[in-house]
Amino acid sequence: MKKKIVSVLMAALMTAGMLAGCGGDTTNEPASTDTGKSSETQQAEAPAAPETETPEEAPAAEPVTLNVAYMPNYGSLWSVENAIAQGYFEEEGITINLTEFQDGPTIIAAMESGSIDVGYIGQGAHKLCIGGQATIFALSHISNGDALIGGEGISKVEDLKGKKVAYSSGTSSEDILVNSLTKAGMTMEDIEAVDMDASAIVTAMLSGGVDACATWSPNSLTILDEMPNATKLTDNLTFADQTVSLASWIAMPDYAAENKDVLVRFTRALFKAMDYAATEHQEETAELVAAQVAQDKDTVYQQRGDAEWLTGKEVSEGAADGTVEGYYELQKKNLIDSGAVVFEEGQTEPAVADYVLLDVMVEAGQY
Q1: Are 319 and 157 spatial neighbours (Cβ–Cβ below 8 Å)?
Q2: Is there a contact between 315 and 271 (Cβ–Cβ < 8 Å)?
């Protein structure tokens, strides 16, 4: 729901003139009850008009440098690169140091060590946020970049029985694999699951070391492009009627509690960049991302179909009206139902508001 904020400035007018002298002449000088005083004397003795105070400008935000973790793909960098290029971070007094990682759990580990201040995560690592290890302060987009891919001779999920399937545990790779198996009436016990780093999955698949894999863009695009006989068995849209795949920006809980103003400023810059690039400037965005990740622009440009790109205004308004909270509620439910999130005896399920800073998104959207 969009809101208009209308400011009305009102000033009171004071009439300081009264009729004086003869011949019906008027004057702006105040009338005097002492007829022995000249008009010049009366004017000199008239009270001075009150001075108008000049409103003080809001103090500039304290400059801050943030160490920011990202993954080498369009979805991770689309907003942050535009926020840098368009000067939105500069407007907020923020300097950005970017550091590349391959997956969300590794980013969270780096944040726990203190080397990273804020970072981007995909669907899988949200389970760690539900568990209290990190705090979400901004929704980036709704993803469709994950895929389960079968090699030659594998055309449906059921064909994976007894096959070697590469995946990366704790990430969206594991999520889409588990969801795909569940939909087909199978479990991880029905396949030979091979857990490996995300960066190694492409090599394993192209070399024939595994029969299938679960991965995300741009790895999925590379495999499908270089393996003519490969088949995309499922992607996020396969489960659109029952789940949602989210990408978010996170910080450590203590950092978030102590630096809310910094997170609002960072998010405001992101939101302006999302407004800029959600529906336009995607080729320009691909050029920025390609330069950062050392890939060719066309490869990066192909990734623009990996998500529903939300504007910052949409996210902020959704945080205010309950839409965004609903996304995270559905995500939490599915991660619990799939067994990705397990609570120990005595633990209670957290409310979304316990680990998602909806107020930061609302405040950051006021620009």
Answers
A1: no
A2: yes
Tokens 């088949």 label which residue? 231
Tokens coding 191: 């396949």
Q: In what order do the strands lie in the sheet with 146-150?
A: 192-195, 164-167, 212-216, 146-150, 231-235
**How far is the C-alpha of 308 from the C-alpha of 27, rounded, in Å?**
69
Residue type, 319: A
Token pair of 188 as six digits:
């991880």
How many whole angstroms separate alpha carbon 242 and alpha carbon 182?
A: 13
> 81-97: per-residue pLDDT in tens?
999 999 999 999 999 99
Establish whether the linkage from the previous residue to 253 is cis, with ω within 30° of 0.
no
The token duo for 44 is 């000199």
Q: What is the pLDDT of residues 216-275, one digit of tens each?
A: 988 999 999 999 999 999 998 898 778 899 999 999 999 999 999 999 999 999 999 999
Cα-based angle 332, 340, 178 (whole degrees, multiple of 5)? 110
Lowest mean pLDDT among 44-53, 116-125, 302-311, 323-332: 44-53
pLDDT tens profile 25-55 = 433 333 333 444 444 434 444 445 455 555 5
Query: DSSP assignment, residue 156?
Result: S
Return the biggest CA–CA distance within the chain.
115
d(C-alpha 232, C-alpha 359), whole Å: 39
Who's near 60: CB < 8 A, 6+ residues apart?
93
DSSP 96-115: EEEEE-SSHHHHHHHHHHTS
Going 207 to 208 to 209 to 213, the CA torsion angle's sign is positive
Residues in the chain: 367
Assessment of whether the complete model's pTM goes beyond 0.85: no
DSSP state at residue 356: B
